[in-house]
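queue> pop job 88
queue> type: inverse folding (structure -> sequence)
queue> payload:
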């Protein structure tokens, strides 16, 4: 690990303001670590209100010209940007692995999913088209417009340093807005590289800006009068805080919160297929996914056989640095988070769950300073246990038991989170019942992580979403634009008698 006297030689990440790198005026900073080694690799500035004001001012100044840029020209810049992102996909994935810890293959897949949102946004000339109705009244026509909002902002989490920002700013910018992004201070480098590539694609200066920081920077964004809309992905308490603050300040807000994603396994399911799917969904990216499966509901008599298969497969996972070849699971993002997740394993044992596989026993030979934790598996978890109630956000999977499909649906619907869920079955009737009756925003049928593709929208229900619109897809377009309706009449006579009645059709 780096010693304190080594810190002065470590690179400090810049801001991206008005099309170039800028140093923060704030003297506060944090450390970026490599989770596989524990080494401090960079320092990241924690912006103050003056830094945020500078970035928002750049976006505000760039807005009028960008708003008036024809959508087709915006789309052409996005086309070039998509090509540059694709050409730099491996380099971006490596930045993700270096700062988050996930495997290179997983990181590359998440970059690709982000690029697909850019591909969707390239269709903006069609996506923002309005409607027109002729002769809604005698000599009266009516048409609608979708127009941009102004300066928009995104506050994104550590677990997807490329994909989640790409859920937001390409759609906002395609719609004619300008944007200020505040990525997680734990993983700042990928956002900076994406900003450089956007400028290379021809994006005018000031349209896209990147700032860094903690709560002070977030609050400065939420309180800024020139920021018209805020998009957020993170924990439920922070999502609720951002939603309430933005609503109080008259801003649009989409705040995606936490999750406790369930997979229901019915007795007729292909257990080998289900177990393989659940291993990836629970332990991929060390469980640090908002769509990770962290609770399995075994229905009927399927529980013992399913737990045995998951245990055997989880015990064989190859755990190591994400940059190593053929690794299944990398480290957790920070030492503090690794220790917090290990604490949940201890709590699960104390509360009476059966610990089938203990990830705390894992030892990373030669990587003792890395933030590693093995896969943990609990059986006979009950809804009153902390490991069920809390979003652990780590490689811990709990299995609950239910007698019937109806009971499993009631269990899932009673959970305060409602982000994603899945059912494993061969029965079309059971799948249809689950799909219709489950009160969750994203549903998978034999698909363990039902993240919608880019031209659908991503978002949960209940405590997993605060706001009315999901991200990307057409809901993203609607979020980053506002509707205007124009009613037109061209009188055919020089004078008309005044009317004091409410206008009606006809």
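queue> result:
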């Amino acid at each position: 690990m780096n010693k304190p006297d080594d810190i002065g030689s470590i690179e400090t990440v810049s801001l991206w303001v008005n099309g170039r790198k800028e140093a923060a005026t704030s003297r506060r900073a944090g450390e970026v670590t490599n989770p596989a080694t524990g080494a401090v690799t960079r320092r990241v500035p924690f912006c103050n209100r003056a830094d945020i004001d500078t970035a928002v001012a750049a976006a505000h100044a760039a807005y009028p010209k960008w708003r008036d840029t024809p959508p087709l020209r915006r789309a052409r810049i996005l086309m070039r940007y998509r090509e540059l992102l694709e050409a730099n996909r491996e380099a971006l994935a490596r930045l993700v692995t270096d700062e988050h810890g996930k495997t290179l293959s997983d990181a590359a897949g998440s970059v690709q999913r982000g690029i697909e949102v850019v591909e969707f946004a390239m269709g903006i000339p069609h996506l923002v088209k309005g409607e027109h109705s002729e002769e809604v009244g005698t000599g009266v026509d009516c048409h609608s417009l979708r127009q941009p909002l102004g300066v928009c902002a995104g506050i994104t989490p550590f677990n997807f340093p490329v994909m989640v920002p790409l859920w937001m700013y390409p759609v906002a910018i395609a719609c004619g807005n300008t944007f200020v992004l505040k990525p997680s201070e734990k993983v700042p480098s990928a956002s900076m590289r994406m900003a450089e590539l956007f400028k290379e694609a021809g994006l005018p200066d000031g349209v896209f800006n990147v700032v860094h920081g903690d709560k002070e920077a977030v609050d400065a964004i939420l309180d800024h009068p020139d920021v018209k809309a805020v998009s957020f992905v993170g924990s439920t308490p922070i999502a609720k805080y951002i939603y309430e603050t933005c609503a109080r300040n008259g801003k649009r807000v989409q705040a995606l919160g936490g999750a406790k994603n369930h997979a229901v396994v019915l007795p007729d399911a292909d257990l080998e297929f289900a177990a393989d799917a659940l291993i990836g969904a629970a332990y991929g990216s060390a469980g640090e996914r908002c769509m990770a499966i962290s609770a399995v509901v075994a229905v009927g008599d399927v529980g013992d056989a399913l737990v045995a298969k998951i245990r055997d497969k989880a015990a064989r996972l190859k755990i190591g640095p994400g940059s190593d070849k053929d690794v299944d699971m990398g480290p957790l993002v920070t030492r503090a988070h690794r220790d917090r997740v290990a604490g949940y394993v201890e709590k699960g044992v104390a509360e009476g769950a059966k610990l089938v596989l203990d990830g705390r026993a894992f030892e990373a030979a030669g990587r003792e300073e890395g933030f590693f934790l093995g896969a943990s598996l609990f059986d006979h978890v009950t809804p009153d246990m902390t490991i069920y109630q809390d979003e652990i956000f780590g490689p811990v999977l709990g299995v609950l038991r239910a007698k019937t499909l109806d009971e499993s649906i009631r269990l899932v619907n009673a959970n305060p989170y409602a982000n994603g869920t899945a059912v494993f079955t061969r029965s079309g009737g059971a799948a249809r019942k689950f799909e219709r009756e489950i009160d969750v925003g994203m549903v998978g049928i034999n698909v363990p992580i039902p993240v919608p593709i880019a031209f659908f929208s991503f978002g949960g229900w209940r405590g997993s979403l605060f706001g009315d619109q999901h991200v990307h897809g057409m809901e993203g377009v609607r979020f980053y634009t506002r509707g205007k309706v124009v009613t037109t009449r061209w009188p055919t006579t020089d004078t008309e008698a005044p009317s004091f009645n409410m206008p009606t059709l006809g």
